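If you are new to this repository, start here. Below is one unmodified record pulled from the training split, so you can see the exact layout before writing a loader.
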Amino acid sequence: MNNNQKGALLIILAGTCWGVISIFINYLSDAGLGTMQISFIRQMISVALFALIILIRDPQKFRIRFRDLGLIMLCGLINGVMFNFLYFYTIIHSRASIAVVLLYTSPVFVMILARIFFGERFTLPKIAALVLTVAGCVLVTGVLGEGYTPPPVAILTGVLTGLAYALNNILTSAAVRRNDPETVTLYTLLFSFLFLIPLSGAGDLLSKCKAEPVIIGVAFLMSLVTGVIAQYVFSAGLKLIESGKAAIYGATEPIVGSLVGILIFHEESGLMKIAGIIMVITAILLIGRDQTGQDS
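And here is the target side for that same chain:
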């Protein structure tokens, strides 16, 4: 297995981990936790778990280049605060399906930013995969058949969610080129946690956890799967493949999210969703064959 294939599998695994997050979010929301509280407890447990893993495996990975701290701090701000706020706002003020569609405008932003900052080239397979991905995501979420138009502000925050996701992808790519992926993951989670402290309502969160201790168990599992594992394999994957390709492989997230909705939450399924899943899988296979790097 070459580096491109390894990187693809790692990004797909990260997308799968992120795709199941709705299971945990719905439970914690029903338990009374707010958006920033869920984000805060997720980042807090994730950074503690990751720090423990590094302490046991290789304490040298606590070291980071001082001049890269600003870059990783920015990753933490975008990943932990901006993205969560924009994404959850879009879900609350429109629909989850709309939010997912707008989130996956991110490959467009990623490919443009990767071209500007890294000189990554546009190729015909990339462009074709991008079109398939966006179209597939629209079909997977079922937006076309619902006749629903979200408020303009929700559309704006949804598109900005895609931009925030793309920026995190690009900044993480830059960080892992000069630092170990585990080190980047640790400090991204740490800064995310620190930025969320004043927004968390920590006293109220503690009271809710005391009243319903199972919240801690659910939050722990969510942090392990969607925080530690997802963030680490995502960073490791970005070290092996181009950001533009990673944006396509990461589209496994809405596929998994849709399957979770169908199988766990009993949402409607139909030919459009199935066609959308096939289109995104086709895009993943297509971009995986793009080894030539030819300019379109």
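Two things worth knowing about this chain: The first helix runs from residue 3 to 19. The chain has one domain: 3-288.
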